[in-house]
């Protein structure tokens, strides 16, 4: 029986291997120099995961990097199997002279991350079917309730979740982006956003999330896994 891990335990288990915990997943990046090299990395990754590859591993293959994501896909959560696979993948990548890394503190344009879209709604159950239909989205495994998030079944678009409103807010944007970054990337990302003309709206829920806004008041949240596990 696979054991579900806390965010803290998952992060601690793999951070030194270049993986970062993001939204119930582990993610890392492998810099490469060409598509043929990226293909070799993907081949090594699938081989390292063996029979567990289909149920846990997702690969985004580009000419300059390969992004590897681990999650127990049938549960849409992280288990001890994913931790074991992360260590096996890092070892396999090291064996071919490359490295798994979160792109923190490097010359990379950005770290590994996930983007979510949040929609404020007075009646979540009423609007959720529209967004599910118009985007061609589906429910996450074991999360098919009328207020649960919806996801792209092929993993290309951002997850969408719904935030409960208590009253109409016509003077405030009701759709905003959540940018889930590694916990050690958040300070740099916030500093860059503020330097680019943004302002800090609230840090009351930090380090779970910081609310930022552009010059016209449109909001975005920088989020991390920290501050979300029960004590």
UniProtKB/TrEMBL annotation:
SUPFAM superfamilies: Glyoxalase/Bleomycin resistance protein/Dihydroxybiphenyl dioxygenase, PCD-like. Pfam families: Glyoxalase_6, Pterin_4a. Gene3D superfamilies: 2,3-Dihydroxybiphenyl 1,2-Dioxygenase, domain 1. Residues 117-223 form the Glyoxalase-like domain. GO terms for molecular function: 4-alpha-hydroxytetrahydrobiopterin dehydratase activity. Its EC number is 4.2.1.96. One of its GO terms (biological process) is tetrahydrobiopterin biosynthetic process. Keywords: Lyase. InterPro entries: Glyas_Bleomycin-R_OHBP_Dase, Glyoxalase_6, PCD_sf, Pterin_deHydtase. It catalyses: (4aS,6R)-4a-hydroxy-L-erythro-5,6,7,8-tetrahydrobiopterin = (6R)-L-erythro-6,7-dihydrobiopterin + H2O. Belongs to the pterin-4-alpha-carbinolamine dehydratase family. This is Putative pterin-4-alpha-carbinolamine dehydratase. It comes from Micromonospora polyrhachis.
């Amino acid at each position: 029986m696979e054991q579900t891990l806390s965010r803290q335990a998952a992060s601690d288990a793999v951070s030194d291997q270049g993986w970062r915990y993001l939204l119930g997943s582990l993610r890392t990046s492998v810099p490469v120099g060409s598509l043929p090299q990226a293909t070799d990395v993907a081949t090594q990754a699938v081989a390292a995961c063996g029979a567990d590859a289909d149920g846990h591993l997702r690969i985004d293959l580009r000419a300059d990097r390969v992004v590897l994501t681990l999650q127990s896909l049938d549960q849409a959560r992280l288990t001890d199997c994913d931790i074991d696979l992360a260590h096996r993948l890092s070892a396999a990548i090291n064996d071919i002279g490359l490295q798994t890394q979160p792109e923190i503190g490097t010359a990379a344009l950005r770290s590994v991350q996930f983007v979510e879209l949040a929609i404020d709604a007075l009646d979540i159950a009423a609007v959720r079917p529209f967004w599910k239909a118009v985007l061609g989205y589906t429910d996450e495994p074991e999360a098919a309730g009328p207020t649960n998030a919806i996801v792209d079944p092929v993993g290309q678009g951002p997850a969408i979740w719904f935030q409960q409103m208590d009253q109409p807010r016509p003077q405030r944007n009701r759709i905003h982006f959540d940018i889930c970054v590694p916990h050690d990337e958040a300070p740099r990302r916030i500093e860059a956003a503020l330097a680019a003309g943004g302002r800090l709206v609230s840090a009351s829920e930090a380090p779970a999330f910081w609310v930022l806004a552009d010059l016209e008041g449109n909001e975005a949240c920088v989020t991390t896994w920290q501050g979300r596990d029960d004590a």
